[in-house]
């Protein structure tokens, strides 16, 4: 078959299909029209598709374009027929009985609400916001924070690496080092941001989540200042009557390290109980020195917390995954 013959057959089929649909009675059902159209075109379309392979290579592009145009033209003719039949019968595609969609009431995400409240409390305590990159170097994420070279957190099963020396930060602690390299003490900053870890996505863990860290560095700062500041934060956030307690804990970048627990009501009928809210401690001298400060002259303290877990305890959320669902019905509960 030559290209000219192929194009002639394709054009003839298009004309026959339009003529068939134009000649049908006004009361012909759509399914009946489709049946007659299929009987007319199916065998001829299949023959044209098979003939494509027999054409010379230089003609196949033009023939293929004609074949696709033919199929599209037949479908458009059928759509016109369907619209004409619906119009003649007085059928409307608008369903007046369908209930209207309700107005959605926008709201900030519960984790955002928690972060904003925490930032406002620390702003009143003299802290400013500091930000840093989410794609970090291994040195800023681990080395400058006193992690030993063989620390398990540096393994591939815990950390998402982007390259040989680049990774998605596992905490916002690198912001501490970058801040100390940029500004001279006294420094009081709060560093909220997204962090990434190779955690399974389950009821209590997520591979990407918000973290919020604080840092205070100056001459003569002690653990007493840390406890007083964090206890004041807890009283403002949870209520003046809530008790706090500190217990020993370990983090490579602080010495000594501690965790702070707060009495929290989880709304499960069991009343107040101790819940760990954050980790904290005095900034390790090696971290100060890696940031270019004299550890004999300056001291400091730092803390870190997960706003998502705090939001879960505050709003009685049992599964962390609902915070990532973008379900408007869930978010509407927090609209103000």
Automatic annotation (TrEMBL):
Note on cofactor: Binds 2 magnesium ions per tetramer.
The keyword Transferase is annotated on this UniProt entry: no
Any GO CC annotation of this UniProt entry: cytoplasm
Binding, Mg(2+): 255
Pfam (any one): Phe_tRNA-synt_N
Single GO BP term: phenylalanyl-tRNA aminoacylation
EC number(s) recorded for this UniProt protein: 6.1.1.20
Chief subcellular location: cytoplasm
PANTHER family: PHENYLALANINE--TRNA LIGASE, MITOCHONDRIAL (PTHR11538:SF41), PHENYLALANYL-TRNA SYNTHETASE (PTHR11538)
Subunit structure, interactors included: Tetramer of two alpha and two beta subunits.
Record-stated family: Belongs to the class-II aminoacyl-tRNA synthetase family. Phe-tRNA synthetase alpha subunit type 1 subfamily.
Protein's UniProt name: Phenylalanine--tRNA ligase alpha subunit
Gene symbol of the encoding locus: pheS
